[in-house]
Every structure is written in structure tokens, then in C-alpha cells.
Amino acid sequence: MNERGNKSESASVAVYETLRLPTLVGLVVANMIGAGVFTTSGFALADLGSANRVMLAWAVGGVIAICGALSYGGLARRFTESGGEYLFLSRALHPLAGFIAGWVSLLAGFTGAIAFAALAFETYISPLLAFTLPPKSLAIALIVTAALLHGARVRAGIGVQNVVVFLKFALLIIFIAAAVFAAKVIGVGSPAPSAPEFSLTAFAGSLVWISLSYSGFNAAVYVAGEARDAQTVVPRAMWIGTLIVTILYLILNSIFVYLAPYEAVVGREDVAAIAAQSIGGQSLALLVRAIIALSLLTSVFAMIMIGPRVYAKMAEDKVFPALFRFQGDVPRAAIAFQAVAGVLVVAFSTLKNLLSYLGFTLSLSAALTVFCLFLIPRAESQSVKIPAYPFAPVLFVGATVFLASLAVWRNPAELIATLLTVLSGIVLYFILKRHHKVDSDDKIERIV
């Protein structure tokens, strides 16, 4: 192994004891649970006209996400370093494909998603404050705080994140128990009108938004190089975390669409708060708002941690500036860069614009990544053996491409934004490649 590899390995060994299974499961859960689960079902109920169909869509979304987690787990068994989609596509397909995936991660997967979560956090937490702050100041402060904690030491950032994730879980359990108890006292929500004829187009359209709430199941692969026994622990963390989130989503949405009055929540964005208000009054509604804010806070913390690991891996492969490599046990420059990028997007973007861009771009990147499972030579197939193969990756890729196509059919601007992202990544790849005078095809060991 060369000197650079030894240094990289030493940095990873230094934090093996930190990134164990509970932390990685918490990372997956924190990255998945955001505002989506608390806002989507009102729109889905309006489109589908039936609480049962809404719950079916959430269950289907969970199955797709679990298939994705299992598929990513197979790739994580073959490639045990940090880097996520960048690593998988660079090694299994081509360095250019990997670079584009890393570029997409930078713009959409992390920078855009961090800005979206931070802005949503400010939206939900502001009404709870007794004073008024300048617009976007809370969102920016959250990003800076997360960067400072994760940039100091791995243990400092992880410790705070684990505590907040535990608090979020405790509040969710309290909310579920309170909602069920209150519903028994006041009775179940009002009956819904007769459901319209089932529409596959409407069902798929609702599933597009629901699938966004399940994104983030792959969070553990971005820090795989810093995990103990990554071949076992990282795949396990992804499917356990995704299963936990799926169960939570089904319970929460059952409360929203079954226990609250139908007319009160149908077509409403703030379905969780309305349902809580109807079931348990203002106190339960305030609890929901606090849970949503905590969920968004942990999402920002998780993405500030895992995003810079991708850039650090790209720097190690000499397709990004060397400045972004690990400094000690954390990639401080990459974390600072991620924070600055997130703050800039917060300053110049809106929630609506970010949401329409994120879903399509990230789904295509994930589908192409899982497709890499079929490129691994037969002789090495045992190293990526996954449950339900090839059913799980086929279902994930097929469903993801179908939903992405439906999203583009509804809003062609999403395709244009994604194409611009890809084209800018291609141009940047060749500029950096020429600057570093490195032939990535020779420097990066590939499997095909």
C-alpha cells in the first residue's frame, strides 16, 4: 500500500470505535426523517380520495426503500471505503460516472438538501420563539453550528447528534401514545366520502412525493471507511434504519389519515399539525411542531457529517483539490466548504425551487448506482450477495426510473436542471483532470 493509502487508513482506524452499529443506524434514521412524513399525506389524500390508498402508497414506498437499502448493502460489502455513489460508480462503471455522481451529491444530495432542511427548520421553529429574528438567520445558524461541531472532532459531532436523535425518538413515541389515547377518548376521525375510482396515475404521483420522504436510506455508505467491520455493519445499519423508519412512517400516517377528521386534513400541507390539533388540542400540535423541527435539525447534522466524506474521497483519488482530504480524524476543509455552500443556497433559494430539483436528480443517481450490481463479474458476485437478489435491485431500479419519468412528465423543468448539473460535472471533471495531470482510468482500480 502506498503512503497516501497508509495515511488514509490511519485516519479511519482512529475513529473505528466511534462509528458502530447504533451510531450508523441513528445516522440513517436522522437522514431519512425530515418534514416530508409530516406534510405529504394531506396531498396524497386529496389525490387518492382514500385513507387506505394513502397507507398503501406509504407501504409501497417503504418496500422500495428497503430494496434500495439491501442493494446498497451489497455494494457496501464489495467497496468498504467511504464515498457513496462516487465510490461505487467510479469503481464499477467509470471514473467520469463517479465524478458526476459526486458532483450531483455536492449540489443536490447534500448542499441543496441541507439548505432545504435548514429553511424548513426555520419555518417550523420560528412560531415557537418569543422573539423575531431576521429571515433565514436561524437556517444559517443551524448550518454553521453543525459544521463547527462536526469539524471539531468526530466524537463531538456524533455525541450531540446521537443525543438529539434519541430525543426525537422519545418525542415521537410520546406523540404516538398521546394521539392514540386522545383518539380513544374523543373517538376516531369523521368518515371519508366514498373513494373515487382507483387511478394508477394518481397513485404513482402520490408515490413520487412519498418516495422523497424515504430518501436517505443510504447514509451509512458515506462513512463506511470509518466503521468497524464495514462489510457487515454498514449493510446492516441501512436495512435496520430503513425498516425502523418505514414502521414509524406507517404508524404516524395512520394517525394523520385515520384519527383526524377527513375534511380537516385533506389537501393540507400541515397535515401533522392539523391532525394533532384535532386529536389532542394545542399542546399536541406544539409537540408535533417541535418533533418536526428536531427531525430537520438532525437531518442537517447528518448531512453536514456525511457530505464532506464524499469530497474527501474524491480528493484522495485526485479528482478534487487535495485541500478536501482528511485533516486528522475529520475532513475540516470539506466540512467548511459544505457549510459555506449550504449557507449560500439558503441565502438565494426557496423551499419550492429546491424541492422540485432534488427529487429527480437524486433518484436517477441512486438508480444508476444500484444498477452497478449487475456489472460486477460473476466471479466476485459472492462478495455482494444480498437478500432477494436480483428482485431487490430490479424492483428498486425499475420503480425509481418509473417515478422519475412520471415526475419529468409532470414538470419537464426538472430534467433541464438535472441535465445542466450533469453537463457542468462533465466539464469540471475534464478541467480538474487536466489540472492534476492524472489519468483517472489508470490511477483508480476498477472492477470491470
Task: Walk me through the topology.
Blueprint (H helix, E strand, L loop, with lengths): L2 H11 L7 H12 L3 H13 L2 H28 L6 H8 L2 H31 L11 H16 L1 H33 L13 H15 L15 H30 L2 H4 L5 H46 L15 H17 L2 H21 L19 H20 L2 H24 L3 H4 L5
Helix pairs in contact: 2-8, 2-10, 2-12, 3-9, 3-10, 3-12, 4-9, 4-10, 4-15, 5-6, 6-7, 6-12, 6-13, 6-14, 6-16, 7-8, 7-12, 7-13, 8-10, 8-12, 9-15, 10-12, 12-13, 14-15, 14-16
Membrane topology: Multi-pass membrane protein
Subcellular location: Membrane
GO molecular function: L-amino acid transmembrane transporter activity
Describe the model.
The chain is mainly alpha-helical. The chain has a single domain (17-438), classed as Up-down Bundle (Amino acid/polyamine transporter I), CATH 1.20.1740.10. The chain is 74% helix and 0% strand. The protein is built from 17 helices and no strands. It has helices at 3-13, 21-32, 36-48, 51-78, 85-92, 95-125, 137-152, 154-186, 200-214, 230-259, 262-265, 271-316, 332-348, 351-371, 391-410, 413-436, 440-443. Helix 7 (137-152) packs antiparallel against helix 13 and helix 14 packs across helix 16. Residues 1-17 and 438-448 have low confidence and may be disordered. It is a multi-pass membrane protein. Keywords: Membrane, Transmembrane, Transmembrane helix. The chain crosses the membrane at residues 21-43, 55-75, 96-121, 133-151, 163-183, 203-225, 237-260, 290-312, 333-351, 357-376, 388-409, 415-432. It is found in: Membrane. Pfam families: AA_permease_2 (PF13520).
